[in-house]
Specification:
Pnp Oxidase, Chain A, alpha+beta
Length: 148
């Protein structure tokens, strides 16, 4: 098996071609990793969620990492790790353009909202729990590829 480093361009291609990632955040020295659906555009990963642990933790510590991978042929794979900064896109004046942009990117895929909106608890009244659009500014990116 051969391992090689991906170029920054190859890393961004992999980010743009995929929709599912693992988001890592930390609070009080405790890491937390969760799968997310995302869309990539112009140095940002865009996401959607309902309030919960990951949003609380990213609000407390906006420094996050995101990992995206693809399975290749045989034992092959490609993986990209992003270091970035969480930015919430609240539903208020001054953020409309960014929220609309996030929605337009995410909504290109029919199931974009499900992972962020579905929770394993009793649903609450829609008006009492607003949905949250966010983005992660990509501050660094690195990747590797393995081939047989």
């Amino acid at each position: 098996m051969q391992i090689r480093t991906l170029t920054p361009f190859e890393c961004t291609q992999l980010l743009a071609a995929n929709r599912v990632a693992r988001l890592a955040c930390a609070r009080d020295g405790q890491p937390y990793v969760v799968p997310i659906h995302y869309a990539y555009a112009a140095d940002y990963l865009y996401g959607f969620s309902m309030p919960g642990k990951k949003i609380e933790w990213m609000r407390a510590n906006p420094l996050v990492s995101v990992q995206v991978e693809e399975q290749g042929e045989g034992r092959g794979w490609r993986s990209v790790v992003v270091d970035g900064r969480y930015e919430e896109l609240p539903d208020r004046i001054g953020y409309k353009r960014e929220r609309d942009h996030a929605w337009s990117l995410l909504s290109k895929h029919s199931d974009w909202w499900e992972p962020g909106a579905l929770k394993p608890v009793t649903p609450v009244v829609a008006n009492s729990t607003p949905h949250i659009f966010f983005r992660i500014l990509v501050t660094s990116v690195s990747g590797r590829e393995a081939k047989d």
